[in-house]
Amino acid sequence: MIKIRNTVLAKNIIYCRSLFSRIKGLMLKRNLDVNTSYILVNKKDSIEESSIHTFFMLFKIDILWVNSENIIVDKREDVKPFKLILRPIKPAKYVIELNSGKTKSINIGDKIKFL
What we know:
The chain is mainly beta and 115 residues long. 5% of the residues lie in helices and 42% in strands. The longest helix has 6 residues, at 19-24.
């Protein structure tokens, strides 16, 4: 479960730790369940390793970049499919992909809880 303050962002988490699962992510999926999130996990905080693409995605998403201290260092809302590179402004260990519209009340600097 992912929680910020008293808000549950997602109850179901799909962790992507391998290179293949991180590259594949949400490619070719028709949608993302409202209670589900994908988390791409890097070995360390990094801008390069937490850069993503939205090629072959079929819907818009919100993205949170979170560092190893569980602090949101960047976010993007309503990201459209077929973007070549999306990079955070600061190094991140986790890239959280959520349904579009889920991060409207979330701010850079907020702390996330993984339960």
